[in-house]
Every structure is written in C-alpha cells, then in structure tokens.
Specification:
By secondary structure, the protein is an alpha+beta fold. The chain is built from four helices and five strands, in the order αβαββαβαβ. The protein has a five-stranded mixed sheet.
C-alpha cells in the first residue's frame, strides 16, 4: 500500500519511482547538496563538485528544484531536462555581476 500511495503522489501509476529522473553536475560540495536532497543520489566528484540524480513529477518541476541550489549546473541528461531549463523561469540562474544571466551548460 505504501508503494502505491508514494507512486501516486509522485505522479506514477505503476510504481513508486518518479516519472521524470535527471542527472546534473553541480559546482557545490557533495555534503552541501546531500543536506538538501531527500531522495536523490549524490556522488562526490571533487571538493566543490558533485553529481546529482534527482526525480520529480515533471521536467519543469525538476528543473525548478535543481535551480534552488543557486550554483552552476551542467545538465548531463536527459534531453527533456535540458529542454525544461529553457521553459522554467524558476530554474533561471541568478544574474552575473554585469547583469547578464548565465545559461546552464547543456551537453
């Protein structure tokens, strides 16, 4: 029953998994990211860099959730998450000193 309820709250109809799962590299220490990540997977890539695999009920919702880290974000996949960063004003990185907005690194 718990699996069914968890899945329904996540927008899934046949499992407890998130329907949208993406992977990014954040220019933040893994320990800092893990503190604010409830059910994602955080992997340390260096002292100030980590990989995060996170899920959400929608791609735009995932982009917005990742934008809250207020750090440079390299979207490593999938293409739907890369596209969502272009669609979500909530996931827009903060302005640089010269007033320009940086764009996420899309590979």
């Amino acid at each position: 029953m718990a699996t069914y309820v968890t899945g329904r709250f996540r927008g899934s109809t046949d499992s407890s998994a998130w329907p949208c799962v993406g992977e990014v590299i954040l220019n933040l220490p893994a320990a800092a990211v893990a503190t604010y990540t409830r059910d994602g997977l955080v992997e340390e890539l260096g002292p100030d860099r980590c990989k995060l695999v996170q899920g959400s009920w929608s791609w735009v919702g995932l982009a917005a959730a990742l934008g809250r880290f207020d750090a440079d974000i390299e979207v490593t996949g999938p293409a739907e998450l890369k596209a969502a960063f272009g669609d979500s004003p909530a996931a827009t990185p903060k302005q640089q000193d010269d007033g320009r907005l940086p764009t996420p690194i899309l590979r």
